[in-house]
């Protein structure tokens, strides 16, 4: 699955050439086009659906057309979780923090902190991020969330990516992955816990987020090999993460050997 762990497309936080429209504007345009031309010709005057989210329920409300942008909710509005008489959908296993971000994305094409294009630096950054020149760090605005049963803080964008996969929102998956690449200063335990969460909540066929973590760990290997948390996690095992990491490391070594052989043929 991971033939080469360091292909350019898998690098986190890779800068790209700016387009005429910002990433957020492109997202909003795509969503607006869907809303302007929904399958049934309906508009935002569609019925309001009440959503009861979480074990300690929080109430949300959204237009049926907006929810129907997600295949998951299209099915949910016809399934066992939908009370047609009251137009209510029960989602007891969803987390209200993450669901709030999902709704924000469905209506606005992004979620806080938004992805912004900095014209002066010609690069993308997160809304309200610390100024590099002033504070010397990019910062990590709302980078983690606490999900019941996770055993500690998780990277917010990872959880949103997994939710987007469940809801069939591929554009949101791409957005979440891109935003996660802009985070910095995340501790080893949060990275490893989030990586396990990613493996537990994405199918084997979806390698984007998994490859992101493998590349991150390999790039930061000097930090991870000194980490007691990393040692403990590897001794516990129980996740495909560590086999994939081994394969990625082997591929990385193969890449280095191949480059060396091209310069002066030799083998190890």
SSE topology sketch:
Layout: H1 23-36, E1 48-53, E2 58-63, H2 64-67, H3 71-76, E3 82-83, E4 88-91, H4 96-108, E5 115-118, E6 123-126, H5 132-135, E7 144-146, E8 153-155, H6 156-167, H7 170-180, H8 188-200, H9 208-219, H10 221-225, H11 228-236, H12 241-263
Parallel strand pairs: 1-4
Antiparallel strand pairs: 1-2, 3-4, 5-6, 7-8
Q: How would you sum up this structure, described in words?
A:
28% of the residues are buried. With 268 residues, the chain is α+β, with helices and mostly antiparallel strands. The protein has helices at residues 23-36, 64-67, 71-76, 96-108, 132-135, 156-167, 170-180, 188-200, 208-219, 221-225, 228-236, 241-263; strands at 48-53, 58-63, 82-83, 88-91, 115-118, 123-126, 144-146, 153-155. The protein is 47% helix and 12% strand.
Describe the structure concisely for a colleague.
The protein is of the alpha+beta class.
Name the descriptors:
four-stranded mixed beta sheet, two-stranded antiparallel ribbon, 268 residues, alpha+beta, single chain
Q: Averaged pLDDT, please?
A: 80
Roughly how many Å is the radius of gyration?
Answer: 21 Å
The coarse silhouette is: globular
Runs with pLDDT <50, length 5+?
A: 1-20, 37-42, 132-140
Per DSSP E runs of 2 or more residues, the count of β-strands stands at: 8
Strand numbers in spatial order across the main sheet: 2-1-4-3
């Amino acid at each position: 699955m991971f033939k080469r762990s360091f292909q350019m497309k898998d690098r986190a936080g890779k800068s790209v050439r700016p387009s005429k429209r910002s990433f957020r504007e492109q997202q909003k345009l795509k969503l607006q086009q869907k809303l302007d031309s929904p399958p049934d010709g309906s508009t935002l005057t569609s019925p309001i659906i009440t959503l009861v989210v979480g074990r300690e329920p929080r109430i949300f409300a959204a237009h049926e057309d907006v929810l129907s942008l997600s295949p998951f909710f299209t099915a949910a509005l016809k399934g066992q979780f939908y009370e047609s008489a009251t137009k209510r959908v029960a989602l007891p296993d969803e987390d209200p923090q993450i669901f709030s971000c999902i709704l924000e994305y469905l209506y606005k094409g992004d979620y806080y902190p938004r992805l912004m294009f900095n014209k002066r630096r010609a690069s993308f950054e997160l809304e309200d991020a610390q100024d590099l020149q002033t504070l010397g760090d990019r910062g990590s605005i709302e980078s983690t969330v606490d999900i019941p049963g996770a055993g500690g803080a998780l990277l917010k964008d990872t959880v949103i990516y997994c939710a987007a996969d469940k809801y069939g929102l591929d554009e949101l998956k791409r957005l979440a992955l891109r935003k996660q690449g802009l985070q910095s200063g995340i501790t080893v335990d949060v990275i490893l816990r989030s990586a396990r969460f990613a493996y537990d909540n994405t199918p084997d066929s979806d390698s984007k987020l998994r490859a992101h973590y493998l590349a991150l760990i390999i790039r930061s290997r000097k930090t991870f090999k000194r980490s007691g948390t990393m040692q403990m996690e590897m001794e516990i095992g129980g996740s495909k993460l560590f086999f994939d990491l081994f394969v990625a490391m082997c591929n990385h070594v193969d890449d280095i050997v191949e480059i060396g052989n091209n310069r002066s043929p030799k083998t190890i």
